[in-house]
Design goal:
single chain; 251 residues; eight-stranded antiparallel sheet; five-stranded antiparallel sheet; 31% strand
Length: 251
Amino acid sequence: MKKMLLALIALLTAGTLAQTDNRFVYEPVPAEVSVPQAGAVPSDAIVLFDGSNMDAWMTAAAEEDAHWEIADGAMTVRPGMRTIKTRQVFGDIQLHLEFRPSELIQGEGQSRGNSGVFLHSLFEVQVLDSWNNPTYVNGQAGAIYLQSAPLVNVAREPGEWQSYDIIFQSPVYDGRGNLSEPAYVTVLQNGVLVQNHVALQGATYTPLPEYTVRCVPYGQEREQDCSGKMPITLQDHGQVVSYRNIWVREL
């Protein structure tokens, strides 16, 4: 009996070890991505603006060359320069950009440093001067516009550079044009988490949030298929806002 018991224990132990060994995964090996120094662009990133030109961008509506003002490594939108979008289209992404509302305070609420980052050209992460500037909380900096207020307000003073690091998961549709998975977004503003894997209710600029396979993206004029990859859009809201160091990684 004792021998049988010891044999059973050995068998069970061997099975446990075998299961444990199977948890070691060796393939596929993650690709090596270098980041030379803190704040540098990852080696596998697509640079959308490095301070020298706007070749990666065009106007959202007319699809002409973009002509925002370029100076000191930044591009600045001023009233009438028009909303722009990337020439390249994207699905799931990691997006980094830095923005700076004008140091000249004019107006209040939504009239101070207003712009926006439209993921998929449909879902706006609000850009605003939210330093000592009360407004509706789902419209302040770091908000998913009209859908989700930021967890905290980490806005810096007007004229100071700020950053967004955004993880975006694009919506998924089935073969019949029905939504299978909504879009999700995580946002860090100035290194602080302000949106934590938020499920987006739909487009943020339409009268009510909606998901549709056919749509007219923000700032554009032509109806198109919006179920696949889409551009990233930066908004001209009639106010002065600067951007720099914009890059994206496809996920």
